């Protein structure tokens, strides 16, 4: 590929396109597996029991994660793309199902897809700060997101969280922390400033 093409579109846009492609190619076969499992359960004398239930649960979890990642890491280059708050909340809640963190989604109405991407990335940042679990409250007011979590066991990596407000990273983050690199890029593209607040047992983010 011509390097000037990569430069022209930007590495973040290229990464988003790759993310969209991967999620698009994975969601159909995983959905087909889920349909096949349902058919097997419907056949008289067919496969049944805890083994099939385990596979079915794993398939549903994989579908939920791909739907979430498709928004969080995929491309939202078309500025007129929208998503209902109910749909976005359902995607987030399904993604978090079975995990230690519990999102309290309070947004309503129709949302720009780029705005949903913004809050999904912010949620992933909050997950890292709550290794023992906890509730993450998510509200939207006057076109801006507010997230906050209260926990006596916050684990905040200062070097990662400071990147959200403009401090460059001194080391390359692990794949598990790529959201800390992407969130400020998406926010800047939307003309948003990120504000982070931290107390002894409270973490907040506005964008």
Automatic annotation (TrEMBL):
One Pfam family linked to the record: HPTransfase
Annotated InterPro entries: ChpT_C, HATPase_C_sf
Alphabetical UniProt keywords: Transferase
GO terms assigned for molecular function: transferase activity
Domain of life: Bacteria
Residue ranges annotated for the Histidine phosphotransferase ChpT C-terminal domain, each copy included: 86-201
Protein name: Histidine phosphotransferase ChpT
Biological classification of the source: Bacteria, Pseudomonadati, Pseudomonadota, Alphaproteobacteria, Rhodobacterales
